[in-house]
Every structure is written in C-alpha cells, then in structure tokens.
Amino acid sequence: MIVLSLNRTEVKGYGMRVDCEFSLPESDLSGKSSSTATAEEGEKACRLRVSLNIKYTDSADLINIKKLSMEKGSDTGARRVFNIENQTAKAFGVRQVRFSDSLTAREMEDDHAWSVSFVLVEYQSVAEKVELITIKEKEPEAAPADEKVISESSVASTTTPSWLEKVVANLDTYLAGEDSATDEV
Which of 49, 27, 47, 51 is CA-nearest to residue 39? Predict the structure, then answer.
C-alpha cells in the first residue's frame, strides 16, 4: 500500500501511484557535425506525479487535496511548502515539496469515482543547496565604502605588463619625445 502524507496529513484514496521524475537536461553542442558533445544544464528539482482514485462517497478526501493545493504561506503569500512522507520521495532524497502545474479530477462513471492527479515539485533540492553554498563561497566580500576597489585584472596588468602594453608604452614615450622636439622649433 502506497502512503503519501504532506505535513502529516495523509492523502487518502485507492490505487495510488507516485512517479518521480529527475531531470538531467543537456544541450547539443555538435552543430551540424557528428560530434556527441553536450553541455550539462544542471540538475533540476524532482517532480512527483501523483495519481489516485477517490470514490464519490469520499468527496471530503478530494476537497482536502484541493485545500492542500491552495494553501499559501502566511509570511510570503507563495504556495505552501510541505514536508513529505512517501517511499518514492524518500528514495530520491525529496524532503519538501509544493504543489505545481495542476490538480485534475476526472469522473469515472463505471467505478463511481474520480481519477485524481497532481504534481508535487521538490523544494530546495540538495543540488540547489550545494549550488547556493558554492556561489556564496566564491562571492567576493564587499569592500568598505571608503576603500578603493581594485579588480584582479587591473592588479595583474599593473604587476606584469603584456608585450602589447610594453609596445604601446614605448610608442607613447617615443611620440612624447617627438612632440617636445617639435615644440622647441
């Protein structure tokens, strides 16, 4: 029996199925060649596609799912984030989710029930948390307002001039010498 609960509120129904989709997108870099080169586009959040049936006599269960999907956070006004308990979610390391896309209920006349489906999207995945930590570690510290900020490229260029910078400096010196010679005449 598949169990799904959101913040300890059990989602009730029968014939429940939870499918998890973990997307690893990449772009083709081969152009018109036969190359197999690709560019990774990161790890996307897991999407849990939930489908179940709810009998017409248990309409309160469908109403409960709709209420859960509409809940908003009191401080942000955004869709509420739920702690999830489900064996498939646990296997993929999904701890928190929020409702996404749509909630559908289709009548099944022969069974006197609704076929219900909805999507839950992972909130703050492990990959997302690692990426945020990495960005913060690489982010330069802000300099105090009264100090000059010097970029690494300008420091590097002042300590070791390139051959082009040397040629330009010599030309400037040479031309400055010609200008002073013509001023004396």
Answer: 27
